[in-house]
Write a structure and sequence with these properties.
Blueprint (H helix, E strand, L loop, with lengths): L4 E6 L2 E6 L10 H15 L6 E6 L4 E3 L12 H9 L3 H7 L4 E5 L2 E3 L1 H7 L3 E5 L3 E3 L13 H9 L1 H10 L3 E2 H7 L4 E3 L4 H13 L3 H16 L2 H15 L3 H11 L10
Parallel strand pairs: 2-3, 3-5, 4-6, 5-7, 6-8, 7-10
Antiparallel strand pairs: 1-2, 8-9
Helix pairs in contact: 4-5, 5-6, 9-10
Bound molecules: coenzyme A (COA).
Length: 258
Amino acid sequence: MYENLLIEKHERIAVLTVNRPNKLNALNIATRNEILAALDALQSDAEVRVLVITGAGDKAFIAGADIGEFAGQTALSQREVMTQRRAFDAMETFPKPVIAMINGFCLGGGLELALSCDIRVASEQAKLGQPEINLGVIPGGGGTQRLTRLVGEGKAMEMILTGEMITAAEAHALGLVNHVFAHAELREKTMALAAKIAEKSPVALRMAKEAVKTAARSGLDEGLRREVDLFALCFASEDKEEGVRAFLEKRKPNFVGR
Ligand code: COA
Protein backbone atom coordinates (compact mmCIF):
# COMPACT_ATOMS: atom_id res chain seq x y z
CA MET A 1 0.00 0.00 0.00
CA TYR A 2 2.91 2.35 0.71
CA GLU A 3 6.10 2.54 -1.31
CA ASN A 4 8.42 3.46 1.56
CA LEU A 5 6.60 2.35 4.71
CA LEU A 6 5.59 -0.91 6.32
CA ILE A 7 2.68 -0.97 8.75
CA GLU A 8 2.10 -3.96 11.01
CA LYS A 9 -0.46 -4.36 13.75
CA HIS A 10 0.04 -6.47 16.85
CA GLU A 11 -3.14 -6.40 18.89
CA ARG A 12 -3.47 -2.78 19.96
CA ILE A 13 -0.03 -1.65 18.77
CA ALA A 14 0.82 -0.47 15.27
CA VAL A 15 4.43 -0.49 14.12
CA LEU A 16 5.30 1.96 11.35
CA THR A 17 8.64 1.14 9.73
CA VAL A 18 10.34 3.56 7.36
CA ASN A 19 11.50 1.17 4.69
CA ARG A 20 14.38 2.55 2.61
CA PRO A 21 17.22 0.57 4.18
CA ASN A 22 19.54 1.12 1.19
CA LYS A 23 19.36 4.85 1.91
CA LEU A 24 19.49 4.35 5.68
CA ASN A 25 15.76 5.20 5.69
CA ALA A 26 16.45 8.82 4.70
CA LEU A 27 13.25 10.85 4.58
CA ASN A 28 12.57 11.94 1.04
CA ILE A 29 9.49 14.02 0.29
CA ALA A 30 7.49 10.97 -0.82
CA THR A 31 8.20 9.20 2.48
CA ARG A 32 7.24 12.22 4.55
CA ASN A 33 3.95 12.41 2.63
CA GLU A 34 3.36 8.69 3.20
CA ILE A 35 3.94 9.19 6.93
CA LEU A 36 1.23 11.87 6.91
CA ALA A 37 -1.18 9.54 5.10
CA ALA A 38 -0.35 6.66 7.48
CA LEU A 39 -0.91 8.85 10.53
CA ASP A 40 -4.33 9.87 9.19
CA ALA A 41 -5.28 6.22 8.66
CA LEU A 42 -3.96 5.12 12.07
CA GLN A 43 -5.69 8.00 13.86
CA SER A 44 -9.11 6.77 12.78
CA ASP A 45 -8.30 3.08 13.37
CA ALA A 46 -9.94 2.37 16.74
CA GLU A 47 -8.04 -0.92 17.07
CA VAL A 48 -4.76 0.98 17.30
CA ARG A 49 -4.02 2.47 20.70
CA VAL A 50 -0.26 2.99 20.58
CA LEU A 51 2.09 3.64 17.66
CA VAL A 52 5.74 2.57 17.46
CA ILE A 53 7.91 4.08 14.74
CA THR A 54 11.22 2.59 13.61
CA GLY A 55 13.53 2.12 10.63
CA ALA A 56 14.06 -0.95 8.43
CA GLY A 57 17.26 -2.95 8.65
CA ASP A 58 19.83 -3.21 11.36
CA LYS A 59 21.76 -0.04 10.77
CA ALA A 60 19.51 2.99 10.86
CA PHE A 61 16.42 4.46 12.42
CA ILE A 62 16.42 7.38 9.95
CA ALA A 63 19.64 9.02 8.71
CA GLY A 64 17.96 12.38 8.11
CA ALA A 65 16.33 14.16 5.23
CA ASP A 66 17.25 12.75 1.83
CA ILE A 67 20.28 14.89 1.02
CA GLY A 68 19.93 14.02 -2.67
CA GLU A 69 16.75 16.09 -2.77
CA PHE A 70 18.51 19.18 -1.42
CA ALA A 71 20.65 19.49 -4.52
CA GLY A 72 17.95 20.76 -6.87
CA GLN A 73 16.10 22.97 -4.41
CA THR A 74 16.01 26.74 -4.40
CA ALA A 75 15.34 28.70 -1.21
CA LEU A 76 11.76 29.26 -2.28
CA SER A 77 11.01 25.68 -3.32
CA GLN A 78 12.58 24.34 -0.12
CA ARG A 79 10.52 26.78 1.94
CA GLU A 80 7.40 25.63 0.10
CA VAL A 81 8.15 21.99 1.02
CA MET A 82 8.83 22.87 4.64
CA THR A 83 5.81 25.05 5.24
CA GLN A 84 3.27 22.49 4.03
CA ARG A 85 1.70 20.18 6.61
CA ARG A 86 4.69 18.41 8.16
CA ALA A 87 5.23 14.87 9.38
CA PHE A 88 7.03 16.20 12.48
CA ASP A 89 4.10 18.31 13.64
CA ALA A 90 1.56 15.62 12.71
CA MET A 91 3.51 13.13 14.81
CA GLU A 92 3.54 15.49 17.78
CA THR A 93 -0.20 16.15 17.63
CA PHE A 94 -1.17 12.54 16.78
CA PRO A 95 -3.83 11.80 19.40
CA LYS A 96 -2.35 8.47 20.53
CA PRO A 97 0.98 7.80 22.24
CA VAL A 98 3.93 7.36 19.87
CA ILE A 99 7.18 5.61 20.78
CA ALA A 100 10.30 6.10 18.65
CA MET A 101 12.20 2.79 18.60
CA ILE A 102 15.66 4.03 17.64
CA ASN A 103 17.46 1.05 16.17
CA GLY A 104 20.56 2.73 14.69
CA PHE A 105 21.59 6.05 13.12
CA CYS A 106 19.09 8.71 14.18
CA LEU A 107 20.28 11.86 12.50
CA GLY A 108 18.97 15.21 11.32
CA GLY A 109 15.32 14.83 10.32
CA GLY A 110 15.40 11.36 11.90
CA LEU A 111 16.21 12.83 15.28
CA GLU A 112 13.65 15.57 14.66
CA LEU A 113 11.00 12.94 13.97
CA ALA A 114 12.03 11.07 17.15
CA LEU A 115 11.81 14.36 19.06
CA SER A 116 8.23 14.73 17.83
CA CYS A 117 7.34 11.36 19.40
CA ASP A 118 6.24 11.02 23.02
CA ILE A 119 8.81 8.50 24.24
CA ARG A 120 12.16 7.54 22.76
CA VAL A 121 13.94 4.25 23.37
CA ALA A 122 17.21 3.25 21.76
CA SER A 123 19.36 0.28 20.92
CA GLU A 124 22.78 0.41 22.53
CA GLN A 125 24.12 0.64 18.94
CA ALA A 126 22.19 3.81 18.14
CA LYS A 127 23.97 7.06 17.28
CA LEU A 128 22.07 10.32 17.48
CA GLY A 129 22.89 13.75 16.13
CA GLN A 130 21.93 16.91 14.29
CA PRO A 131 24.63 16.94 11.55
CA GLU A 132 23.01 19.62 9.37
CA ILE A 133 25.77 22.11 10.18
CA ASN A 134 28.20 19.87 8.24
CA LEU A 135 26.12 20.54 5.11
CA GLY A 136 26.09 24.28 5.69
CA VAL A 137 22.48 24.34 6.91
CA ILE A 138 20.67 24.07 10.24
CA PRO A 139 17.96 21.73 11.56
CA GLY A 140 14.65 22.72 9.94
CA GLY A 141 12.23 20.08 11.25
CA GLY A 142 11.98 21.44 14.76
CA GLY A 143 15.42 20.35 15.99
CA THR A 144 16.52 23.73 17.31
CA GLN A 145 13.28 24.02 19.29
CA ARG A 146 12.33 20.51 20.45
CA LEU A 147 15.88 19.37 21.24
CA THR A 148 16.51 22.54 23.22
CA ARG A 149 13.31 22.10 25.22
CA LEU A 150 14.15 18.48 25.96
CA VAL A 151 17.84 18.63 26.90
CA GLY A 152 18.46 22.33 27.59
CA GLU A 153 20.19 25.04 25.62
CA GLY A 154 23.82 24.18 26.35
CA LYS A 155 23.65 20.53 25.29
CA ALA A 156 21.39 21.26 22.30
CA MET A 157 23.73 24.05 21.22
CA GLU A 158 26.76 21.74 21.35
CA MET A 159 25.03 19.02 19.29
CA ILE A 160 23.76 21.52 16.71
CA LEU A 161 26.99 23.56 16.44
CA THR A 162 29.40 20.59 16.25
CA GLY A 163 27.11 18.27 14.27
CA GLU A 164 28.74 15.38 16.13
CA MET A 165 26.89 12.19 16.92
CA ILE A 166 26.37 11.00 20.47
CA THR A 167 25.99 7.43 21.67
CA ALA A 168 22.77 5.95 23.03
CA ALA A 169 24.31 6.00 26.52
CA GLU A 170 25.10 9.72 26.18
CA ALA A 171 21.57 10.36 24.89
CA HIS A 172 20.21 8.53 27.91
CA ALA A 173 22.29 10.66 30.28
CA LEU A 174 20.83 13.77 28.61
CA GLY A 175 17.25 12.52 28.96
CA LEU A 176 17.01 12.43 25.18
CA VAL A 177 16.08 8.74 25.26
CA ASN A 178 14.14 7.14 28.12
CA HIS A 179 15.74 3.70 27.91
CA VAL A 180 18.68 2.00 26.21
CA PHE A 181 18.18 -1.68 25.44
CA ALA A 182 20.50 -4.41 24.12
CA HIS A 183 20.15 -4.39 20.33
CA ALA A 184 18.72 -7.93 20.23
CA GLU A 185 16.09 -7.04 22.83
CA LEU A 186 15.07 -3.64 21.46
CA ARG A 187 11.86 -4.75 19.79
CA GLU A 188 10.67 -7.02 22.60
CA LYS A 189 11.33 -4.40 25.28
CA THR A 190 9.73 -1.64 23.22
CA MET A 191 6.65 -3.73 22.53
CA ALA A 192 6.36 -4.52 26.25
CA LEU A 193 6.42 -0.79 27.04
CA ALA A 194 3.87 -0.12 24.30
CA ALA A 195 1.63 -2.93 25.59
CA LYS A 196 1.67 -1.46 29.08
CA ILE A 197 0.41 1.87 27.68
CA ALA A 198 -2.07 0.19 25.30
CA GLU A 199 -3.96 -1.28 28.28
CA LYS A 200 -4.95 2.17 29.53
CA SER A 201 -8.02 4.16 28.57
CA PRO A 202 -7.49 5.66 25.09
CA VAL A 203 -9.54 8.65 26.23
CA ALA A 204 -7.29 9.26 29.23
CA LEU A 205 -4.15 8.69 27.14
CA ARG A 206 -5.29 11.33 24.69
CA MET A 207 -6.06 13.83 27.44
CA ALA A 208 -2.78 13.06 29.21
CA LYS A 209 -0.74 13.58 26.03
CA GLU A 210 -2.47 16.86 25.29
CA ALA A 211 -1.98 18.07 28.86
CA VAL A 212 1.73 17.20 28.93
CA LYS A 213 2.28 18.80 25.52
CA THR A 214 0.67 21.98 26.81
CA ALA A 215 3.47 22.33 29.38
CA ALA A 216 6.08 23.28 26.79
CA ARG A 217 3.72 25.57 24.90
CA SER A 218 2.16 27.73 27.58
CA GLY A 219 2.80 29.49 30.85
CA LEU A 220 2.16 27.64 34.12
CA ASP A 221 -1.22 29.25 34.87
CA GLU A 222 -2.57 28.47 31.43
CA GLY A 223 -1.15 24.94 31.59
CA LEU A 224 -2.74 24.27 34.98
CA ARG A 225 -6.10 25.52 33.73
CA ARG A 226 -5.84 23.30 30.65
CA GLU A 227 -4.98 20.33 32.86
CA VAL A 228 -8.11 20.87 34.97
CA ASP A 229 -10.28 21.05 31.85
CA LEU A 230 -8.79 17.87 30.40
CA PHE A 231 -9.05 16.11 33.78
CA ALA A 232 -12.74 17.06 34.00
CA LEU A 233 -13.31 15.93 30.41
CA CYS A 234 -12.19 12.41 31.40
CA PHE A 235 -15.27 12.33 33.67
CA ALA A 236 -17.43 12.36 30.54
CA SER A 237 -16.02 8.98 29.47
CA GLU A 238 -17.30 5.45 30.02
CA ASP A 239 -13.67 4.55 30.64
CA LYS A 240 -13.56 6.69 33.78
CA GLU A 241 -16.66 4.88 35.11
CA GLU A 242 -15.08 1.53 34.27
CA GLY A 243 -11.70 2.46 35.80
CA VAL A 244 -13.19 3.57 39.09
CA ARG A 245 -15.65 0.64 39.25
CA ALA A 246 -12.90 -1.90 38.47
CA PHE A 247 -10.73 -0.47 41.25
CA LEU A 248 -13.57 -0.68 43.77
CA GLU A 249 -14.44 -4.22 42.62
CA LYS A 250 -10.75 -5.21 42.81
CA ARG A 251 -10.51 -6.31 39.18
CA LYS A 252 -8.67 -5.27 36.03
CA PRO A 253 -10.43 -2.54 34.03
CA ASN A 254 -11.54 -3.14 30.46
CA PHE A 255 -11.24 0.20 28.71
CA VAL A 256 -13.18 0.65 25.47
CA GLY A 257 -12.03 4.09 24.41
CA ARG A 258 -15.26 5.98 24.95
N1 COA B 1 20.22 11.18 2.44
C1 COA B 1 20.38 10.45 1.33
N2 COA B 1 21.10 9.31 1.30
C2 COA B 1 21.64 8.89 2.44
C3 COA B 1 21.52 9.60 3.65
C4 COA B 1 20.76 10.80 3.62
N3 COA B 1 20.55 11.53 4.73
N4 COA B 1 22.20 8.94 4.63
C5 COA B 1 22.73 7.86 4.04
N5 COA B 1 22.40 7.81 2.73
C6 COA B 1 22.75 6.80 1.74
C7 COA B 1 24.21 6.90 1.31
O1 COA B 1 24.36 7.89 0.33
C8 COA B 1 24.44 5.50 0.81
O2 COA B 1 23.85 5.38 -0.46
P1 COA B 1 24.65 4.69 -1.70
O3 COA B 1 24.92 3.28 -1.22
O4 COA B 1 23.65 4.75 -2.83
O5 COA B 1 25.87 5.48 -1.89
C9 COA B 1 23.64 4.64 1.76
O6 COA B 1 22.66 5.51 2.32
C10 COA B 1 24.45 4.03 2.88
O7 COA B 1 25.11 5.10 3.57
P2 COA B 1 26.71 5.17 3.78
O8 COA B 1 27.09 6.60 3.91
O9 COA B 1 27.41 4.36 2.75
O10 COA B 1 26.84 4.42 5.20
P3 COA B 1 28.01 4.62 6.27
O11 COA B 1 27.83 3.52 7.26
O12 COA B 1 29.33 4.75 5.59
O13 COA B 1 27.71 6.02 6.97
C11 COA B 1 26.29 7.70 8.00
C12 COA B 1 26.54 6.19 7.73
C13 COA B 1 24.93 7.82 8.69
C14 COA B 1 27.39 8.24 8.91
C15 COA B 1 26.30 8.49 6.67
O14 COA B 1 25.44 7.82 5.76
C16 COA B 1 25.85 9.92 6.78
O15 COA B 1 26.59 10.75 7.24
N6 COA B 1 24.63 10.21 6.29
C17 COA B 1 24.10 11.54 6.27
C18 COA B 1 23.59 11.97 7.63
C19 COA B 1 23.14 13.42 7.59
O16 COA B 1 23.90 14.34 7.40
N7 COA B 1 21.83 13.61 7.83
C20 COA B 1 21.25 14.94 7.95
C21 COA B 1 20.66 15.37 6.68
S1 COA B 1 20.07 17.03 6.81
